[in-house]
Structures are given as structure tokens and as C-alpha cells.
Amino acid sequence: MIAKTKGIHDTKSFVGALSAVRYIDPKYVYIATSNVRCGQADVYIKEGDHVDICQVIGMRHGPFFDQPIHATISGTFVGYEKHYHRNGKLTDFIKIENDFKDTMDKSCQKRTPDEIEELTHDKARMTELLKETANVGLGGSSFPTYIKFQTDKKIDMILINAIECEPYITADHRLMLEFPYRVIDGIKYVMNAFDCKKAKICIKSKYKDIKEVYEKTLKEFPDSGIELACLGNYYPQGWEVEMIKNATGIQLNPGELPSNRGIMNFNVSTIVGIYKAVKYNMPVVKRFITVTGNGITTPKNFRLRVGTSIRDLIPMCGGYKHPEKDKIFILGGPMMGVSVPSDDCIVTKTVTSVIILDKEEYEEQPCVRCGSCVLSCPVHLEPVQIMNAVKTLDKERIKKLNPLRCIECGLCTYSCTSKIQVTDYIRKAKLIAKL
Fold first, then answer.
1. Which residues, including other chains, have CB under 8 Å from residue 296's CB and lie 6 or more apart?
2. What ranges do the domains of the chain cover?
3. CA nearest 274: which of 170, 187, 357, 212?
4. Is 216 exposed, middle or buried (0-12, 13-18, 19+ CB in 10 A)?
5. Span 252-258, mean pLDDT?
6. 224 CB contacts (<8 Å, ≥6 apart)?
7. Nearest of 170, 166, 175, 164 to residue 213 by alpha carbon
8. 113-280 in CATH: which number?
9. Percent of the chain residues past pLDDT 70, beyond the cut
10. Is the peptide bond before 236 cis (omega within 30 degrees of 0)?
11. Cβ neighbours of residue 297 under 8 Å, at least 6 residues apart?
12. Closest CA to 38 of 137, 131, 142
């Protein structure tokens, strides 16, 4: 019997229980000159220059915003190298050799409680701070956080997305367990900025460990207006529209901004990034990631410097489980992440995980019109019809089927009984629909 796909098997419960390994002193870090939102950059340093942690070393340029580039260690700029980026492309990276002195740039100063109170109640100043510290969506979107702060809409509810609904990934899980006070302080700073009295931390109801920690911790802040929302245990519960519906009862219209309904949502890692920016005037220089999959000997969570090479982490995970087998490397989740051809890739701000799988060959079979993809699609598209329209290059039909509504969750491919890469066809359809 064909049914809607919701459950996805993974090793989350096992890996989520593993405390993060601190790896914050790599010999080299690599800072990308460009990313998926900013295709060009100016670099302010030259080879041989010394840099400090948090120093602005360049500026990326996007279509409607600029983004400062910060050093994540102190040391010497030794040149450029190409490595794979989270966008799946070979990209130029600034290579910095660590001097292991952890010298901070003079711009990083701890604020007093009074200074924090004054800053966080001034939304214009908060907006400028988040722009200067290049704070972005750390769940993977990389959308500039300061742009969210520019809304003129009245915000009644702050939602924190800590659902982490993709398989394998447990980076946010560990962050929440290891730094609950940073999470809560970051939420309070955002609530101050939007003059908002209510916030909900959204998690899956099966995360009993997170539930226990935050129920206890929130008792210390009885008047904060922050509460825990335990939502469904399915994929894609972490999709913005689904989370908002289940946490608030509000159903967004296609393409509608949450701010139109008085809602502002942030990934939990982004919230901790905001906390660091407010309290220490720091950009994101460290983050949690998960290295896992059946291709690695020992899955682990890490807290490491942004700019760390994945190749540094492989030996710390016991190496490859089956070295003789070809591997698949995925940056991000297996459903929505990006595959890269080798382990020569770098942890940028938005890399939540590295999934290493032994490569298996699947023979694609003809579509049997079982309807699995249609039943499983969270935005109620007809993936099989879109696929057929792409195969025949029927542009008018493609546009009528509205592939631009696709959130690229990957459920159509995952549920396909014929092992067809349906999501790839939808991506092609989106490109055609924009022509």
C-alpha cells in the first residue's frame, strides 16, 4: 500500500547523545572569498600579513547587500587555495596559518549588562551590529539576519527553530544541551529588539533530553515569556511553514513572510550567533557540526573553528570504515544538503554536518505511477507530472505545475519506488520556470 512518507531512518538518537569534541586549534583555517549569496569579494590583506581573530579581512558583494569576511584564528595569511564549498563548487579560500595565540581583534569587547540592555532595546543599532558581524542563518540558509531586523511589522511571537528534522544531523541538538543559557540570553536579546513578549523554542517531542534541560532552565526565568513547544516527530517538521502552523496555529499562504502574521523565526544556532554578537561584539568564529554516516568509523559531534578542513576531522573519527569503497560526501542534511566529490571541503558558517556514505549503485527503473511522490509532497505538488514536463521540455506545462513552490525537501526522491532522482527534475523545472 502506498502511503505518505514521514518517517526517515537514521542514527540521530545515538549520535545526539555524544558530547561535542572541541577542535578549535587547527594548524590552518580556510575562509571562502565567495558564497552562494555573494559571488564576488574584495580581500583587504596580502600574503604575509598577520591577522587577529574577528578582524575584517575582506568584503563579499551580493546583489543587494555586502558581507564582511572575518578571520577565525590569529595567524598569518599564507595565500589562496581552492577547496569545495558548501554550495558544491570549487571556491577560492583564504588560507591562514594558526599562531596558536588566539589574539582577538580590538573590536571585540565584552559589554556590560547595562550596555546590553541599552543595545538590545534599540532595533536600529541591533540591525547594524548584525550586519557588521555578518550574522546569517546558520541552519543552512545563510540569509543575512540583519535583513529580518529591518521589518517594520509588529512582531508578537519569536519562534526558535531547534527541530533539526533532517536525518543524521545533531549539531543543534548538542548546542542546545551544552549552552542552554546562551540560547535563552540570545532569545531575550531578540525579544527586546522587537519589543516582543512571547517566544517559543520549537523542538521535536521525542527529544526528551532537550525537554528536560529547558524545562528546568526556563524555571529560572519565570517572567521571560519563553516557553518550549514540543512538535511532531516527522520530516519536514522543521520547514518554516510547517513549524509555524504547528507552533501557533497560523497557516501561511504560499510565499507569505511570517512577519506579515506577527511572527519572526530564527534557527537556534543563529540565536547563539546573535548572543555572541551582542555580548562580545563577535562574528561567528566557532560552530557545532556532525560528522557521521556509514562510511566513517566513529560518528562524532565537533565544536570547531569556522574554516576547518574536513580532512582534519576524518582521522579523529577513526578514518573511513571501508577505505576500499568509493564515498559520497554530503555537506548539510542528506535530504537537502549538497554532494561534493571528495573530502577536500571546508566547514563554513552554514555547514551543519558532513555525511560520509559508502557509495552504492542504484539502477533507476521506469516510473510506475504509484503516487508516492504526490502523497509525500508537503507543498502538494505533482512531482511526477513536473518530471514528465521536464523530459519533454514543455515550458508552458512546467509553469502551470508551479515548481517554484518546491522547498526541495527531497521526499519525492526518498519515497520513489523506482529510485528516480525526482528532486533533480524539480530543480531543473524551477530553472525553466524562471526563464
1. 314, 317, 318, 319, 320, 321, 356
2. 12-106+284-358, 113-280, 372-433
3. 187
4. exposed
5. 92
6. 184, 187, 188, 199, 218
7. 175
8. 3.40.50.11540
9. 97
10. yes
11. 317, 318, 319, 320, 321
12. 142
